[in-house]
Automatic annotation (TrEMBL):
The chain crosses the membrane at residues 71-98, 118-137. It comes from Funneliformis caledonium. It is found in: Membrane. It comes from the Eukaryota. This is 1604_t:CDS:1.
Amino acid sequence: MSLYALPAAVIVAYYPHFVKGYLVSKQTGKWNNISPRDNVNKAEKQMTQDVWRRAKRCESAHQNGLENFPIFAAAVIVANMSGVPVSTVNFLSTSYVITRVIYNFIYMNNESASVAGLRTLTWGVSIGISFTLYFLAARKGLSP
């Protein structure tokens, strides 16, 4: 089951990217596929400030998901290879995906400093889950 969390985590990481594309396309009527990474910045003057800020937050949530994914993926693989109990790896992997969904929701929809602290907390929990998997794997050691 934990290996299914890997594609799920990829989907969760890319979801904000597609929301960003939708927001830009809806506000500007176009999407520049030649230089897509510049779309949000180039579209700022064509978008309402609320929507532009949300698109920027989506961009950041997507980037954070991409940065976080390799840490998680390696942790899941190593935990599985080292013989960490399947139920533990499954629980932690599912918890990671749920935490990242919450992280994205908060990041994409929040402009409050106090709620941003919750985003940081969910990020910390997701990293903590990955490190927990690493530590559990290290205790078990890899079998030859």
